[in-house]
Amino acid sequence: MPSKAALVSSPMQPTLAARYVNKTQYGHILFDQAQAQAVDVLDRLARQIHERENATVAGTFWARLTKARSVSVDGVYLVGDVGRGKSMLMDMFYEYMDIPGKRRVHFHAFMQEMHQALAGQHKQSSGTDDPVTALAARIAKQYSLICFDEFQMHDMSDAVVILRLLNALIDAGTVFVVTSNTEPDKLLQHHLGREAVIPYIRRFASHMQLVRLRAARDYRRDREENKAAWITPADADAHARLDTVFSSYAVGPAAAARVKVGSRVITVPTASGPVARFCFDDLCGKPLGANDYLALAGSYGVLIVDDIPRMSPENYDKARRFITLIDILYEHRICLFASAACEANSLYEAGENARIFERTASRLEEMRSRTWFAARHI
């Protein structure tokens, strides 16, 4: 029998629900009934995973060797409007899970990694092997729990490959906890050819407990605003104020810079030390993608963006890149300063994809708060 120290959890460990209540009692967060109900679901999942992992640790040599996960455990799909605390709850759950082989990752970053890994898998395969199945087997050996923040799909070709991979991981025993603003049956809702993806979506959803987080407030909007972070309108005065911001972070003279992304290079118009400055069209008017924005987020702690315009369905390519950019800056906790045509919640006109942009507007509200900047050490 294994010692208590060998087990992945202790019976004396406070429950996740107790930790949530403690955070509310100490004033770290405000109590919210919808959040508390979601925590109860996550608490049950935590117990199921711990029991399964402990059974594996306590089992036979063969079970340990193969990381057998004979007990099926469904994951959790946290869905709700922006700013309702989905990511906060998932992070609490992730920190609480004292198990080996866990990972928390933004879904954008995961997709980019998987595309690169699949390209490598294709080169290694004999031609008859399914690279998706082979990659799933590799990942399942590393991770028994994966937490995705901002689970969203915008591209049909990505969706088929990624959903096949996720379903293969579920078959191998990996458990998922995801946050999303979109319910599973509404993913890729307005895309042509969606019927080809529906079976993969339904299969994935069948292994997830859907938890609708109907919190009453957008907690991101409750924070004190840093008026220097988002300047409207984008006029000469705004440009001068952003000059001052740049100077305050600069280390040495400003100059153009280059950031390598694979075999390509992104030109940074103006940079110095931890700060880089772009106009909106440099970042979102060119064919850049998540890999490019990840490289910038890894190179600079402060980003200044001039002249963000209003966007609409007619120029959704730019809006889509902007959404991806903000997701990555948010995930990497980058300090953003910007001049814009209007406030964040008015940047995108009503119409198709307006709901997707609500999350971006909410994140921009949080990223201009004093709390956001106080937590960064640039």
UniProtKB/TrEMBL annotation:
Origin superkingdom: Bacteria
GO molecular function, one term: ATP hydrolysis activity
One Pfam family this sequence matches: AFG1_ATPase
Family matches, as InterPro entries: ATPase_AFG1-like, P-loop_NTPase
GO cellular component: cytoplasm
PANTHER family: AFG1-LIKE ATPASE, ATPASE N2B
Protein name: Uncharacterized protein
